[in-house]
Amino acid sequence: MRVLLVEDASDLAEATQARFRRSGIACDLAGTMASARDCLAVQRYDALILDINLPDGSGTDLLREIRSAGRHEPVLMLTALFSVDDKISAFGLGADDYLVKPFDHRELEARLHVMQRREPADRSAELTAGALSYNPAAGTAAVAGTRLDLTPREFSLLGILLRGRGQVLSKDRLMDGLYAFDEADVGVNAIELYVARLRKKLAGSGVVIRTLRGHGYRLDTDG
User: Fold this and answer.
1) Among 29, 28, 123, which residue's Cα sits nearest to residue 74?
2) At 171, is the secondary structure helix, strand, or coil?
3) 134: nearest Cα among 30, 219, 223, 34
4) Does residue 183 contact residue 158 with C-beta atoms inside 8 Å?
5) Among 142, 154, 145, 77, which residue's Cα sits nearest to residue 108?
6) What is the pLDDT of residue 84?
7) 199 closest CA partner among 179, 217, 175, 216
8) Is 138 exposed, middle or buried (0-12, 13-18, 19+ CB in 10 A)?
9) Are 51 and 78 within 8 A, CB to CB?
10) What local confidence, expressed as pLDDT, does residue 85 receive?
11) Which of 219, 32, 190, 28 is nearest to 122 (CA)?
């Protein structure tokens, strides 16, 4: 999962980004509306987290712009003070959820996964392929009921491949889903390493990750 956090409190933003990174969630940071627009101009996200009060405007105004542009990423509004009027306004503009500061990062992660489950069927609570089951909300994957021991990054990569089952996904596409802008120094060879590890762990699942040289990877059910 890749998210954009629009938050001007640098300590909170950096702590949240660090927490997400440990959970295998790529998080880009923007401290202003202008910076957020720059990120949105070049990147699609699985979810957006918008602070209400920003140095150069309101997060609700940015939400209005996003929806007016036809973008449908799930949006969670974040603020220290959130009145009933604020809630009604945000939901009316297309927000999916809200969270009041201070918050527990575990709750924020849980809400992100819930928002993803509200997306179309390929974002459903559990994905299955062969003997493999993948539950993004619970953070678990299993083969024939036996839980797989996956790192957060391996788990995220498996989710991207499963949601794109049957499609060829380039290394760049996989990089976009796994790494934030400030991790740009990570080489595409890292994807090869994670794919190799996943292949070993998926043995006997009826699921294969095929390499299409020069194009990328495709997840298929064997046979």
Assistant:
1) 123
2) helix
3) 219
4) no
5) 77
6) 63
7) 217
8) exposed
9) yes
10) 67
11) 219
Q: For residue 42, what are its two tokens?
A: 């070049």
How far apart CA 194 and CA 175 sit, in angstroms, is 11
Spell out where the chain has E strands.
2-6, 26-30, 47-51, 53-54, 57-58, 75-79, 97-100, 127-129, 132-135, 140-143, 146-147, 207-212, 216-221
C-alpha Rg value of the chain to the nearest Å: 18
pLDDT per residue as tens, the chain (223 positions) = 899 999 999 999 999 999 999 888 899 999 999 999 999 998 989 899 999 889 999 888 999 898 888 888 899 998 776 666 666 667 777 888 888 888 899 899 988 887 776 654 444 457 889 999 998 767 789 999 999 999 888 988 898 898 888 888 888 888 877 776 666 566 667 888 899 999 999 988 999 999 998 889 999 987 5
Question: Hey, how many other C-beta atoms are within 10 angstroms of the C-beta on 56?
Answer: 13
Q: Which residues of 31-53 are buried (b: 16+ CB within 10 A; e: fewer)?
A: bebebbeebbeeeebbbbbbbbe
Q: Are 50 and 75 in contact (CB under 8 A)?
A: yes
**Residue given tokens 């740009």 in the structure block:** 184
Distance CA 12, CA 91 (A): 24
